[in-house]
Amino acid sequence: MLRIIKSIVTIVAVAAIATTATGAYFSDTETSTGNTFTTGTLDLKVGNMDDPVTVHIVKASQKPSASFSQNIGGQFVVKNAGSIAGTVQATIKNIKSYENGCLDSEVGDATCGAGVDQGELDKGLINRVFFSLNQAPWGSLTPSFTSLQAAQGVTVTSSKYDLAPGESKNAMLSLYWDTSANDNLGQGDSVEFDIEFNLVQI
Hints:
Elements: H1 2-22, E1 44-46, H2 68-71, E2 72-80, E3 86-98, E4 128-133, H3 148-151, E5 155-163, E6 168-176, E7 190-201
Antiparallel strand pairs: 1-2, 2-6, 3-5, 3-7, 4-6
């Protein structure tokens, strides 16, 4: 009996091996060739220029409580010349504030002199500073600032500054000098600063 069982097991094992060795199924193989992976680009242009950007704000003979058109700092056309969407960031940097001497009307000005950072315009006489779009959708970007010094180094951005590939928008910086008791301290003063624009991937 044991011999019969061994014979049956042997037959089943051989049959299984034979089936595995000789079994076949239909198949068809295709190969996809020429696959590539290419990165997109972000290319910000300000006034249609790369660095150095020579487009800048120049405002002379400013005064407290000037009209809206006088208070507007200036417009910068920002463009995404790349192939992927991005959003623009803006940062005020490198403020230099000049006293430009001391007029007799600047009574009480303790910093009268010729050195840098002695002027008052950046320290609160210009007391509303904000970026916005000079086109629809209207409205200022947040945050806004109570002085140029408060704005220095703070990056401002918004979905309003989103740029599709090839798209341009009109970015605007507004500087308001509202009237105050210390207005005379700013007579003859001047202030210079940089605006750094950055385009980042959305």
